[in-house]
Amino acid sequence: MSCEFCHNQGCNGMCRNNQKTPSMMQMAKNFAGSMKDAAKDGFKGSGEDLTKERLEICAGCEFFIPDQQRCSKCGCAMAFKTRLKSASCPIGKW
């Protein structure tokens, strides 16, 4: 079976591990923006079902870095970001 991302035989999506994250400065800005939104929302959690749904979407995304469990667009740690009710995907997938 070929990879849906790079189309190579046997890759299994691990090609996405080669992606770069944004600069540390940009990731800090992204994190600060997420925390500002979360604070406005009272740091509400997304709940287990929504968190799981979001993580499944991320796992199937071309911008997800499996080894790091991060998004290559925003640089966020998705296990954390998906738990914030106010958070959103940087490319609008959730």
Main β-sheet, in a few words? Answer: 2 strands, antiparallel
Biggest sheet: strand arrangement: 1-2
Tell me the β content: under 5%
Question: What is the typical, i.e. mean, pLDDT?
Answer: 96
Spans of at least 5 consecutive residues whose pLDDT stays below 50 are none
The termini sit apart by 28 Å
Which shape, going by the Cα principal axes?
globular
* Structural class category: mainly alpha
Number of helices: 3
Topology, number of strands = 2
Radius of gyration: 14 Å
Helix and strand sequence: HHEEH
Portion of residues in helices?
A: 25-40%
Descriptive account of the structure:
The protein has 94 residues and is mainly alpha-helical. It has a domain at 20-81. It has three helices and two strands. The chain has helices at 24-40, 48-59, 78-81, and strands spanning 64-65, 70-71. It has a two-stranded antiparallel sheet. A hairpin with a 4-residue loop joins strand 1 and strand 2 (70-71). The two termini are 28 Å apart. The model has no long low-confidence stretch (mean pLDDT 96).
Topology diagram in text:
Blueprint: H1 24-40, H2 48-59, E1 64-65, E2 70-71, H3 78-81
Features:
94 residues, mainly alpha, two-stranded antiparallel ribbon, 3 helices, 4% strand
Q: Briefly, what is this?
A:
By secondary structure, this protein is mostly helical. The chain contains 3 helices and 2 strands; from the N terminus they run ααββα.
